[in-house]
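[audit] Reproducing an earlier prediction to check determinism. Same input, same settings, fresh worker. If the tokens differ from the archived copy the diff job will pick it up downstream; this log only records the rerun itself.
[audit] input (226 residues):
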Amino acid sequence: MATADEADQVTVVDFWANGFGMRARIALRELGVAFRYVEEDLRVRERSELVRRMNPVHRSVPILIHDGRPVCGSINILEYVDEVWGNKASRPSLLPHDPLQRAHARFWADFVDQKVFSTQTKFLKSKGDEKAAAKAELLEQLKRLEEVLGDKTFFAGDEFGFLDAVLIPFSSMFYGYQQHGGFDLDVECPGLMRWVRRCKERESVKDVLPDEDEMYELHKKWYGIE
């Protein structure tokens, strides 16, 4: 059971629509860690004094502050959260125990960040033939992740884990993908969409994922989509 003292020790600085920051908030909730949330509005150009002080190199969020010390970078935060609070009697680990499986999870997490996110950006910002190519590439990448999932309940098996926390925030833009690209993910990636629905049944995920319409409207403004 999370305590009030624990919440005083842990702070997450983030923006409500930041998919990378959603990972940290989901992981903390999944492991039952209480935390204080500080909103950093990314629609404002200038970063707050707190962000500049806690992440002077990148001046970006999310930032996890534990006992006054910052941890930056969403994947870095996930691993830190798991090392500090995971694998306790009432708190299972997010990363698998097996070294090969951990490496596998990290590899696909990198795939999400380096491939899927950049393709999402191209898909939303581009036009004409470039958009069509980005759409095909995005669907191919989502289908590749569906293959990795296979017939498992979650990416690591029966328990929600590291790679689930990495990818599920992206599902908050799936509605936007479909509206923008004119396709149906339940047809294109039925297994992946069943996984999304299973994840959304978890309190840790439901409490964090934003409204999909609001996410798409925000991204339309960010990317200048008419």
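[audit] rerun output stored. Observation attached for the diff report: The two ends are 47 Å apart (CA to CA).
[audit] end
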